[in-house]
Write a structure and sequence with these properties.
Length: about 350
């Protein structure tokens, strides 16, 4: 029969020969403050906990202290380069400040988790879309929950907002492609119907209309965020009697699938096919060739640092608005990136340094 012995924090303290307070401090992962504990003592506590098989009850501790020492990172799709990178950076940096990280997928998940008191803070890596979600942000702010929202539309209201404005960068991409191509395909993540103004598809459609360039709707396809579907749809478009000579995609993942499909079709990039994505992700930066993309200058670290500041009380109560305007970064999938030409609309310098704009 297995033993029913369940070690407690008192057992750990007795095994290590230290006080309950010392065990609590060491195992909480806290840093800084006036408390100083020697490295040998810390090692003795950790070894005692390990040998006893002690697992801290974070939920109970959080109820007693009114804190969970947990941060939620809320994303929509881990296939997305931006979502994955945000989760990875948060998971690397926040534990150094004493916080555990949970990653939540989907908008409903974060509301239920946060309203139940699941975390002290949250990073929302997407724009909220409904009045109910907006109400949740304000409700959580009133409860003292630290929040950073990456949004094109939100304003600070007890939380910080990283204001991502994709419009100018997408307009630059439209101007560049319209000046060089008559057959431009568009891959987007939404349904088959045209998106409303404000989405990446809507912004690109409007920018093209402002240039007097109407999109061929037969070349506008939804991928639903699937890399398989992106690859297959690209293959179908390239087999048309009059195939596209350029692609604009509303996410880097789809753009990389276009690049792979075009290469499989023995097309030269960017000579035969130019491709522009959206996000300026690490994934695109390290692809071959490096992906030309619309996005901000380095951003993910800023988002995580903002949350740390708010968790540690270094942020104004009403919140901060941090602008993060986007621009077109020419790299290896556009001729301007390879040749060093100036962009067609004159808004971008010859070729960005490859490290520019990678979040």
């Amino acid at each position: 029969m297995g033993s029913s012995f369940k070690p407690t924090i008192r057992d750990v303290a007795e095994r290590a020969g230290v006080s309950l307070a010392t065990v609590s401090y060491v195992l909480s992962g806290r840093h800084g403050g006036s408390t100083r504990i020697s490295e040998p003592t810390k090692a003795r506590v950790v070894e005692a906990a390990r040998s006893l098989g002690y697992v801290p009850n974070h939920a109970a501790r959080g109820m007693r202290r009114g804190r969970t020492d947990t941060v939620a990172v809320v994303v929509e799709n881990l296939d997305s380069a931006w979502d994955r990178q945000l989760a990875e950076v948060a998971n690397r940096v926040l534990p150094e400040h004493g916080y555990r990280v949970v990653v939540l997928l989907g908008q409903e998940a974060w509301r239920n988790f946060m309203l139940s008191g699941g975390a002290d803070g949250a990073i929302l890596g997407f724009s909220t879309e409904t009045p109910e979600e907006d109400h949740t942000l304000r409700d959580l702010a009133d409860r003292g929950v630290a929040q950073v929202v990456v949004s094109q539309f939100q304003q600070p209201d007890g939380f910080d907002v990283v204001s991502v404005d994709a419009e100018a960068g997408i307009a630059q991409a439209a101007a560049y492609l319209a000046a060089r191509h008559s057959r431009i395909a568009v891959l987007h993540r939404g349904g088959p119907a045209p998106g409303p103004r404000g989405t990446r598809l809507g912004l690109f459609r409007q920018a093209m209309a402002d240039l007097g360039f109407g999109l061929d709707e037969n070349l506008v396809r939804a991928t639903h965020g699937s890399w398989r579907e992106s690859y297959e749809v690209t293959g179908e478009l390239l087999k048309l009697a009059d195939p596209p000579t350029a692609f604009f995609t509303t996410a880097d993942l789809e753009a990389l699938c276009v690049s792979g499909s075009a290469t499989a079709a023995e097309l030269r990039i960017p000579e035969d096919m130019e491709i522009i994505g959206v996000e300026t992700s690490d994934l695109g930066h390290y692809s071959d060739p490096p992906l030309s993309s619309v996005g901000p200058d380095p951003l993910v670290g800023t988002v995580v640092d903002l949350l740390i500041d708010r968790l540690e009380g270094r942020t104004p109560t009403n919140g901060r608005l941090v602008p993060a305007p986007w621009k077109l970064h020419h790299r290896g999938t556009t001729v301007a990136g390879v040749s060093g030409e100036a962009a067609a609309d004159g808004s971008d310098e010859a070729a960005d340094n490859v490290s520019d704009g990678v979040p």
